Amino acid sequence: MGDDSEWMKLPVDQKCEHKLWKARLSGYEEALKIFQKIKDEKSPEWSKYLGLIKKFVTDSNAVVQLKGLEAALIYVENAHVAGKTTGEVVSGVVSKVFNQPKAKAKELGIEICLMYIEIEKGEAVQEELLKGLDNKNPKIIVACIETLRKALSEFGSKIILLKPIIKVLPKLFESREKAVRDEAKLIAVEIYRWIRDALRPPLQNINSVQLKELEEEWVKLPTGAPKPTRFLRSQQELEAKLEQQQSAGGDAEGGGDDGDEVPQIDAYELLEAVEILSKLPKDFYDKIEAKKWQERKEALEAVEVLVKNPKLEAGDYADLVKALKKVVGKDTNVMLVALAAKCLTGLAVGLRKKFGQYAGHVVPTILEKFKEKKPQVVQALQEAIDAIFLTTTLQNISEDVLAVMDNKNPTIKQQTSLFIARSFRHCTASTLPKSLLKPFCAALLKHINDSALEVRDAAFEALGTALKVVGEKAVNPFLADVDKLKLDKIKECSEKVELVHGKKAGLAADKKESKPVPGRSAASGAAGDKDVKDTSAPKPGPLKKAPATKAGGPPKKGKPAAPGGAGSTGTKNKKGLDTKEIVEPELSIEVCEEKASAVLPPTCIQLLDSSNWKERLACMEEFQKAVELMDRNEMPCQALVRMLAKKPGWKETNFQVMQMKLHIVALIAQKGNFSKTSAQIVLDGLVDKIGDVKCGNNAKEAMTAIAEASMLPWTAEQVMSMAFSQKNPKNQSETLNWLSNAIKEFGFSGLNVKAFISNVKTALAATNPAVRTSAITLLGVMYLYVGPSLRMFFEDEKPALLSQIDAEFEKMQGQSPPAPTRGISKHSASATDEGEDGEEPDEGGNDVVDLLPRAEISDKITSELVSKIGDKNWKIRKEGLDEVASIINEAKFIQPNIGELPTALKGRLNDSNKILVQQTLNILQQLAAAMGPNIKQHVKNLGIPIITVLGDSKNNVRAAALATVNAWAEQTGMKEWLEGEDLSEELKKENPFLRQELLGWLAEKLPTLRSTPTDLILCVPHLYSCLEDRNGDVRKKAQDALPFFMMHLGYEKMAKATGKLKPTSKDQVLAMLDKAKANMPAKPAPAKATSKPVGGSAPAKFQPVSAPVEESVSSSVEPKPDPKKAKTLGASSKAKNTQGKKVPSKTSLKEDDDKSGPIFIVLPNGKEQRMRDEKGLKVLKWNFTTPRDEYIEQLKIQMSSCVAKWLQDEMFHSDFQHHNKALAVMVDHLESEKEGVIGCLDLILKWLTLRFFDTNTSVLMKTLEYLKLLFTLLSEEEYHLTENEASSFIPYLILKVGEPKDVIRKDVRAILNRMCLVYPASKMFPFIMEGTKSKNSKQRAECLEELGCLVESYGMNVCQPTPGKALKEIAIHIGDRDNAVRNAALNTIVTVYNVHGDQVFKLIGNLSEKDMSMLEERIKRSAKRPSAAPIKQVEEKPQRTQNISSNANMLRKGPAEDMSSKLNQARSMSGHPEAAQTVRREFQLDLDEIENDSGTVRCEMPELVQHKLDDIFEPVLIPEPKIRAVSPHFDDMHSNTASTINFIISQVASGDISTSIQALTQIDEVLRQEDKAEAMSGHIDQFLIATFMQLRLIYNTHMADEKLEKDEIIKLYSCIIGNMISLFQIESLAREASTGVLKDLMHGLITLMLDSRIEDLEEGQQVIRSVNLLVVKVLEKSDQTNILSALLVLLQDSLLATASSPKFSELVMKCLWRMVRLLPDTINSINLDRILLDIHIFMKVFPKEKLKQCKSEFPIRTLKTLLHTLCKLKGPKILDHLTMIDNKNESELEAHLCRMMKHSMDQAGSKSDKETEKGASRIDEKSSKAKVNDFLAEIFKKIGSKENTKEGLAELYEYKKKYSDADIEPFLKNSSQFFQNYVERGLRMIEMEREGKGHISTSTGISPQMEVTCVPTPTSTMSSIGNTNGEEVGPSVYLERLKILRQRCGLDNTKQDDRPPLTSLLSKPAVPTVVSSTDMLHSKLSQLRESREQHQHSDLDSNQTHSSGTMTTSSSSTANIDDLKKRLERIKSSRK
Questions:
Q1: What helix, strand, coil percent values describe the chain, rounded to 5?
Q2: What are the phi and psi torsion angles at 1029 (to 5°)?
Q3: What is the widest separation between alpha-carbon atoms in the chain?
Q4: Cβ atoms of residues 263 and 158 within 8 Å
Q5: pLDDT tens digit string along 1722-1774?
Q6: Which of 240, 937, 1312, 1870 has the highest Cβ tally under 10 A?
Q7: Model confidence pLDDT, tens digit, residues 1138-1170
Q8: Mapping DSSP to helix (H, G, I), strand (E, B) and coil, where does residue 312 land?
Q9: Could you tell me the pTM of the whole model?
Q10: 964-1011, pLDDT tens digit by residue?
Q11: Geometric angle at alpha carbon 813, from 812 and 818, rounded to 5°
Q12: Is the confidence at residue 1248, as pLDDT, over 80?
């Protein structure tokens, strides 16, 4: 019990984790009690147990576990944190509870799972349970199924997702365990209870007996809809409600509500999609065209079988649909027509929405085929068209359907109407808007008057259905002319109709209709109706908030109308709406007189035709008084105007009387109910008088009044036709002028553009100039409303006239149409409501576009043209495209029917010829403009393929595709693009270009939308994968788009979608979502905010144009209204005006107080925070081509906290003078507010970049002036620009360097100069280099000059990324078109030449002859000499070095000065080679050491004389000790700058050998010390470039130079190769070498190996062997992808180059073979996609035929071997690595890989042993005989060649050992006896050597194979000869010998496992050729030993005392110079 007492004292949570079961049991019991007591679900107590709950349920002791389960259940039920434990606890329950024998445990486990579901964790629970179904233990499977069944039974199918369960059901039914099968049956019955027959298709393939049993069970189920019995926490109220109902005995309505709870599961969703395209018969397309109908029938039957699959996989069905369509449309055999229709039905049903893109093609064909009478054909066609309708929308096919409505065939008319009726049934009030209903009703109204009864009946049915769907209020306006009998018939039909969506749509509309009306006065009845319709329509749509607000909107407008106008407004409103009322019958003159006499004084009527004008005038005055006093309803307008027209009528000669008359007409029109009949009586007279000088104005007034009464469109049409039917030019021009004004006053809606245009054309052709001028003015006004499309109608006018029209349009550009001032009060009371309600504007917006006359071009799209476009020859394809372009051009505006054109153009979008792709894109842009909004129906079949083109690798093609997509979207809106899965499918493609372009596009478009289709959610998973894409640009674009997706989908949906991600990804994405949530923009406000001109009549594209005008009026601070920012701009322009006016007044009031304080406010850490925000993408990165509004807005917000308010107002004012003021203030405060300026510097610089985009020169000059002062201040303050500040300012400053004005350019250059004092020149360099790519030649020239200045001032280190790359870029400009640019480029390179000497020619690479001669000429002319430059440089610019270090030292001066002195010394040394003799302290020789050893050297040398070793050593001896001494200082140097390394590297490529050697030795010192080697990181490419340039220089220049000592060259080679070997032994550095650099390096090394001049030198062989070793190191240690890629490119280049020797290619191939040998070990580190791309390019350049023509068969075999090895190692996965190849058909790579895969599948056999792979032999056991022969031939070729003979023998030995039965006789018998003996002797030698050495190899660490291939392994240990056996041979012997030699020469040995230093590696054959004679080696070894024993210094014996790896430092410290000189002399003489 002692133990017990201990654990009993523990707290509860520790007991629960105790190892004693009793303690745990007690802990769980106590925990259970605690859990029951805690009342607060958010109590902190719960969190204590968060990590323990899994242990509760997985306890190993069964008794304890039961208690744990009870406690866990209570915990899950009550703790608010329980949800966090879902995954782990449920998985614990599944694995550890469900397998328990105790039923209680299982019950508790199930309860826990259900409780988790109740607390909203259903998905996680279901996921774990489904995983449990894969468990091997049947108990667990049964329990999981049971849990799922209970969950479904209790919670219902809305909570438990059925699809994943149904997916696994068939597998469960196949289980061997009966218990599992039984449980599966139970769950299947439960699922059936919820979804009924939707379950049948997925289970159709299970065992028939089981299916039968299920059927029996299903029948027994009750038919009522099941209801959930348990609810989620969030639905608990529902539960309470349900209980109430049950207690009340079940209320009907409640039942209905609950019915809604059960979602209708769509069986389609539960099915697996089937791919059928590949299963089509091979000859299907031939058969379907066959002449015999039986063959066609076979083809169709095959398709019919395939399309019976209920769900089909998406694919390209275009060809299949086309074939079926052809059968339906053209086949003479009606049976086949029916069969094809059935196939189309199957396709539509199986594909659903994915079939939508083909619907437009098929619908017209099917409708026209309804002319067939046979019932089975008609039925098949009906089924087909109904199925197709469900895949698209009525909107999309409306054009086609309406076109068929006019067909003469009554059957077609009847069936089309019936189809429309059936279609309407599927619609709701929102999917059948007024704009769609209008044309359908118009067409159907024609049909109800048709002679054929069946046509009439069908039309009645369709109209009745429409009535039912949208309610009477919406349809009545279209039925105004229908007589009562027919109207009743329509209503009768409407009552019979049953809608697919139930009666909900109609009921809802009725309910809503009844609500608002009572709240309104009866007077505004008509307006009320209109509003009601509008509020009801959007209800079912996705906008949830909008309808509520809208419903409240209109009544407000309705109320004031009632009291103001009493009863009269009501009638007027009615009149405005219902045109029928204003048409009154024409009255006879008698009736008119009678009516007039009733209201006019009798004298008035009598004097109307008096001959005395005064009497007539008096009469008119009385007439006027009478009219003014009359009441509106009592005024007989027609009678009055008839009286006025009575003789003399409009022929009145007295102008005063006439003026009165016209005035009275205006009065009558304004005050009475003026009808069109009355208007017609007057108008003729008015037009006649409009040109009259005196009466013209009155005539115009009267016409305007009439227009207001009878609507402008009608009046204008009448007036225009009257004016142009007479000859008077004055009347014509004045009529046009009146119309121009009228349009401005009334707005443009409803005007007939067509009629106007024809009249305007007549006017333009008039001889009278006034008429022409008026016509042009009218066009200008129309342009405001119609936009640029108007010009198209006048393109064929004379050029002079066209230029006048253009000038008028130009004037109008940038203006917005004025808001209508007339015509609103009466008619548009309703129209404005309507516009504001957002229901109508869409229709209004397209008004103008709809009115344009459209040409039908389908007849021009002939099959010949289509086949041309698809021709194999690109030229013919181009012709076809040209034709299409010209067809569209001629037609200008076209109808949407364009035949087969979409499919033809779609094919061209993936044309291999990119020019044709671009041409196609241009045509598609034309098409969008020509077709207008009707292009909508082509979005799916043509628009989406354009999006695919966004993935093209070429920039210009992508840009063209983007422009095209935008042109389309402008016409179609975004809805069509976002509907369906197409867009998400595009985003799914892992193409970085496609992803970044598409996301960029969406990020631009989504913020402007008010709502989006629900399908947008489908893009989210792919958006998430883009957030983690490998490509940085894709990630950035995805992050940019995230807030806009969230804006439409909401955070919850987006967060839910992360559920399917991996846990790590999920966390990252959720973090990004939270960030995006903070930045989420609000949805754009409704249309009001954009202040749509003229009641929404202008097309959307002209809205932005309206902005500037409004702006100038309001003098607002905002630069431009933008729908995106509607929230910040205020709801309407009114608000904006007031805000704009407030600003100035406020400042004037408070001016004095405001301006006294500081202008910049310093916020602690403000700048850092802004940088963090920008880095974290919380704000936009300052990066643009022209500043968009959002950037300006953002800067304004950021500045608001740091800049004085009054100054900010000046800075962001729209007037440039305010900017000047702001700059003046900033200049004044610059000195006094230094801290403030530096604190806000990033914002100041950003604001100044905005000024660079201003066009005003004075602002620009002021800005530059300020900048000069600013940078002077910053350099005085020793401030250092941050990266952020630099990158957001410098690029924009550089734009200004190309300004045309000299003075500006000069200033900008001065600023750039000053910037180098606060920002390193090396970082400035890339920015300026970017500026050289500009299109502006001045900018290019200036930037090049600036680069020259930088190099002159700061040396070559500024050239970034490397001098080579930078100079190549600069040299490109020598060939520029512009003379100034050429000169600047030449001058810059001359500057570099002056600093750097001949090295320049290597750095600039290959130039054309012309450019090179220009450069040489310029260099000759330049007077400077290279040798003097470095000194000058040092003297002039001490600044530079200071800057470099100041970066590191954060502006402290001390170290910088020290640094610069060192660098200057280094420089002066490099400038004067002779200075090397007067060596400074750091570089002194270590004389003591050398002197001590001099004796030994002398006695030892003779023994080694045959190898001339002393000569090789001599050169390297001098630098060696120097390095030792310099190392401590070098440490300081490299610690604080990379520039030192840059400087030394730049000397490596020096033309002076000693300079180069000196640099190389310094670098070698760094490389050989592990702790310092990393300083080279980042400089590897630069170093290798310098090195291979030096190799090139030696090869081309030094070797040819007779004067040069060849020893010098060998010495330089030794240094280079030693350096490289040191470098390539450090794997981390070796991997930094890039592909291009490795390619050049290998080129240099191989060229060196083949250099015959080297072989002739004494030590040449030695150099070549060293190179051999180096090449092997490079191959092994470099980044394997880069080196393999480099070798492939090199091989390709060498085979292409005619000058290249075959030897060169052969060596490259040998390197490739070596790489192939390494592949098994390196395959996982290789980027196969890149390698396969290189192989693809190789095979493209060298197809098989071309390779076979090569003299040698090695290239083709090398390639095959490489591919074979890759296939063998990767297997079929190799085919997944072809992603980087754009067009796989360009080479045979894919086909070749597939063949190999097939071959390898067919063949069996084990992989050959890894050891043999590493050895010489690479043959697999599987090799065929031919391959064996090839291989042997290759071996013998090697043996026969001078260089590779030893390697060949070794390979042959290996081969014979492996294949003992191999027959090599045939190869030997053709050769000479000498050769045969040589081979046998060689093999014997190898055998002796191998057998003698087998037991030693382990001690040397060199594997036998490695030895054969003559390469020491990288880790080979240099074991001392003391431990080895006398027989050992191989590299270690030589290394040993090197050690001895090093000792003789005073060079200490490195530690056993260190790398040999530079000299030792090169001085001896580190890579021995394979043994020539063992005896010789033995004797060598013994000689070495003896010599060693004789001359051993105990303190230097490397075997006993290995030094620490670094060389001992010099001990000579204070010896005087004379002494040193003497010692040096002694050493020299001893050497001789």
A1: 75, 0, 25
A2: -65, 155
A3: 158
A4: yes
A5: 888 888 888 888 888 888 888 877 777 777 777 888 888 888 888 888 788 78
A6: 937
A7: 333 333 333 333 344 456 678 888 877 888 888
A8: strand
A9: 0.39
A10: 999 988 888 888 888 878 888 888 888 899 998 999 988 888 888 888
A11: 55
A12: yes
Interatomic CA distance for residues 354 and 277, integer angstroms? 14
1890 vs 1897: CA distance, rounded Å: 9
Supply the pLDDT for residue 334.
85
Cα dihedral across residues 1875, 1881, 1883, 1889: positive or negative: negative
- Say whether 1355 sits in a helix, a strand or coil: coil
For 1468, residues 6+ apart whose C-beta sits below 8 A from its C-beta are: 1430, 1431, 1434, 1475
Task: Kindly report the three-state secondary structure assignment for every residue of 1179-1232.
Answer: CCCCCCCCCCHHHHHHHHHHHHCCECHHHHHHHCCCCHHHHHHHHHHHHHHCCC
Name residues whose C-beta falls within 8 Å of residue 1520's C-beta, 6 or more positions apart in sequence. 1561, 1947, 1957, 1958, 1959
The two tokens of residue 838 are 């957002």
CA dist 1249 and 1247 (Å) reads 5
Q: Return the ∠ at Cα 1776 (arms to 1775 and 1779), rounded to 5°.
A: 110
Q: Which two tokens stand for residue 28?
A: 């769980």
Cβ atoms 1359, 1325 nearer than 8 A: yes
User: Which residue in 478, 482, 444 sits closest to 461, CA to CA?
Assistant: 444
Which residue has 């750039």 as its token pair?
1312
Q: Which of 455, 464, 453 is nearest to 492 (CA)?
A: 464
Give the angle 1922-1928-1932 at the CA atoms, nearest 5°. Answer: 75
Contact 11, 49 (CB under 8 A): no
Cα(1134)–Cα(1121) distance, integer angstroms = 13
Which two tokens mark 1657? 């030198």
Residue pLDDT, tens place only, 1788-1797: 777 787 877 7
Q: What is the pLDDT of residue 341?
A: 92
> How far apart, in Å, do the first and last CA atoms of the chain sit?
95
- Lookup: tokens for 1389: 């390179």
Q: Do residues 7 and 41 lie in contact, with contact meaning Cβ atoms separated by under 8 Å? A: no
Query: What digits encode the pLDDT tens for the residues 1876-1886?
Result: 888 888 888 88
**CA dist., res. 415 & res. 421, Å (int):** 10
Please tell me the distance from the alpha carbon of residue 1150 to that of residue 1129, in angstroms, as a whole number.
25
What are the DSSP calls for 378-405, one per residue?
A: HHHHHHHHHHHHTTS-HHHHHHHHHHHH
Q: Which residue has the tokens 């009801």?
A: 536
Phi, psi of 674 (to 5 degrees): -85, 120
HSE-CB of 855 using CA atoms within 13 angstroms: 14
Name the residue with higher pLDDT: 821 or 853.
821
Can you name the residues that pair with 855 across neighbouring β-strands?
A: 894
Distance, CA of 1784 to chain centre = 23
Please, which contacts does 55-60 make with residues 24 or more away whose CB atoms are closer than 8 Å? 55/16, 55/17, 56/16, 56/28, 56/31, 57/89, 57/92, 57/93, 57/96, 57/97, 57/109, 57/112, 58/92, 58/95, 58/96, 58/97, 59/24, 59/28
Amino acid letter, 1200: S
Q: How many other CB atoms are there within 10 angstroms of residue 1302's CB atom? A: 9
Task: Write the pLDDT tens digit of every residue in 54-93.
Answer: 888 888 888 888 888 888 888 888 888 888 888 888 989 9
Which residue has 């303690």 as its token pair? 23
Q: Are 1390 and 1419 in contact (CB under 8 A)?
A: yes
Tokens representing residue 776 in the block:
């042009």
Please provide the average confidence, as pLDDT, over all residues in the chain: 75
Please determine, for residue 345, whether its predicted confidence score (pLDDT) is greater than 90. yes
Beta partners for residue 274, in sequence order: 312
Burial of 1974 (0-12, 13-18, 19+ CB in 10 A): middle
> Residues 1323, 1312: contact at Cβ < 8 Å?
no
Task: Tell how far CA 989 is from the center of its chain.
Answer: 11
- The single-letter code of the amino acid at 1914 is P
Band of pLDDT at residue 744, cut at 50, 70 and 90: confident
- Give bridge partners of residue 1203 from the DSSP assignment: 1160
In whole angstroms, how large is the CA radius of gyration of the chain?
Answer: 46
